[in-house]
What we know:
The chain has 328 residues and is of the alpha/beta class. The protein has one domain: Aminopeptidase (3-Layer(aba) Sandwich), CATH 3.40.630.10. The chain is 35% helix and 16% strand. The protein has helices at 23-38, 47-59, 68-82, 146-165, 193-200, 229-248, 267-273, 307-323, and strands at residues 5-7, 87-96, 102-112, 119-125, 171-177, 211-216, 262-264, 279-283. A 6-stranded mixed β-sheet has the order 2-3-5-4-6-8, with helices on both faces. The chain has a two-stranded antiparallel sheet with strand order 1-7. α2 crosses α8, α4 crosses α8 and α6 (229-248) crosses α8 (307-323). The radius of gyration is 19 Å and the shape is globular. The relative contact order is 0.20. It comes from Chitinophaga defluvii.
Amino acid sequence: MHKVWGIIAGVAFLFSACQEKGKSTEQSEDATKDQQVSQVSVPVFQADSAFAYTEKQVAFGPRIANTPAQQQCSNWLIQTLRGFADTVFVQRVTVQGPHKQALPCINIIASFNPAAKQRILLLAHWDTRPHADQDAFDKKGKLDGADDGASGVGVLLEAARQFHLQKPGTGIDILLTDVEDYGITEEENSFCLGTQYWAKNPHIKGYKANYGILLDMVGGRGSQFYMESISKQYAYGPMKMFWDAGNKLGFSDYFRYENNGAGITDDHVYINTIANIPTFDVIALQANGNFVPHWHTQNDNMSVIDKKTLHAVGQTLLQVIYAQPFSY
């Protein structure tokens, strides 16, 4: 991850959903929504389980294209999701790296309620950057990618387990993308190669979802999630719904409304622009718009992973999916 940074300022967004309505109508609609939400049983997200799923991925070693860890971890992910989902699709393709090298890519898609027309796409990348280019001491060394990659997948695997135990009312597709972090900063589109392939070649021809949620770096201790600019441009409604849900659950220290101006070239860019699915990015950022200190360094290991952060993200995700999937 992550590619190119930009500080985007002075961007205006026009949202027709924000048009004024009469107070009595607003109050009536809000009361109806609150009553509906209160009648829904939302599962309790198990952070211990998400932590174990994250740790398991790291145990395979760096999940880099053309390594045994790529094959071993993908096999485990496929097997695990087959135990939870109604259907699992696997895309095994070859993509071209930034230096024209051929890279094996394994995208994994797990579908729940496949017949449902109303769908939500959940995604995270499961690969690891091939070198710690931001490390202060060894920029050519390998990194575990515990937060940058494994944490998002860990949350989605635990969510998948919950979907299996208690079927959600809407259709859900979990997309785990490969070869996301192999790029170089000089070539913006050299990142997110698995996602770019899927966006052009979805697992089901003509696939559509109401919106998408990208989880990337969602397990670090003390993480804060700001509303990233490209996400706001394409998927402000669903994103604000997610942030509001997190704050109502008591996670206001994590889900911040302050504008830090950051815009990131991440997987959601290609889901938005190629697949035309409004998608937002839940990603740890600093108040100044920079990535967290362990990003792309050898410090991105299990020591930075905090169950409290995993719980905040995972419980908010379940709240949205089970209680208010389209309340935006």
